Amino acid sequence: MSDIPVVLVTGFLGAGKTTLLNDLLKRPAFRDTAVIINEAGDAGIDHALIETGSDEVMLLEGGCICCRMKGSLNATLNGLLRRRAMDDFAFRRVVVETSGLADPAPVLHALIADPLFNRHFSIAGVTTVVDAANFAATLAHHPEGMTQVALADRILISKADLATQDQLAAAEREVAMLNPLAECHVLPASARDGTLLWIDPRETPRPLSRRFSATGVGHAVTTASLAFPGRLTQDQVDAWLDRVSDLFGAALLRLKGILHLEEVSQPVVLHGVQGLVYSPGLVATAAGDENRMVLIARGIEEQDLADALTLLAGMARPAE
Description:
Helix content is 33%, strand content 28%. By secondary structure, it is an alpha/beta fold. The strands form two sheets. The chain has an eight-stranded mixed beta sheet with strand order 3-4-2-5-1-6-7-8, with helices on both faces. β7 (154-158), α8 (165-178) and β8 form a beta-alpha-beta unit. The relative contact order is 0.13.
């Protein structure tokens, strides 16, 4: 059975996650999608579920499946699999709306570490919704908002029509500083594009503007990236990952890279969340001749991240 892609949709309280999903669930292109929401969430989907009845899983008119999360996310996903087998609830993909106060890192960690999840599902990325009008206040008072942005693969800025031009520009600047790796889109007030939720985890990281870059920003988040030539062995990469884990531990929020390994003909994609690293596969399209690695950490000096990347580059053997 092919893997079922799972996207985490996160964002601070009131950012507009539920509004976005409610809008998308009405669209034909969103059929065959299972949506998992938190028991104690915002209005919208939760409200509709509560009024419809007490069943934890229901089929919506648009063909989507909506499920209230009971207990752990892993258990809820496994429950959806059983319901699909027993009740013919067909779905091809899953959207998980996390709580506005949730740090997505432990959620990702729990999924990646679960053998049953890896047998049936695959992580298709983290999409974070940011409130343009209130993002500055969120960052100032709630570290969860910072982590949600730092871990994102794609960032959607909402409520642009309610924000001033200065607020919108400030939100875009903060997002770019916190996570230069992520794609960023400003959501229109209507005609939302459901494809913006979906990220191919095997896609090549965004081109780097410099061969080496390290950005120390406010909120104690540091980003470093490096592009370098050569080929590495699996043992070298494993040793480097062990070293990075020992040095930074849970402070390393995110790792993402494309590496050329001697044992594999195509470039390999690596993703990491707080010390747990997994590979969603090989790069389907040409990734160029260079290796690329990005580290995003909290409370770590940027020079320490730069030194870790330099160590990895020093292991590479020139390509023949």
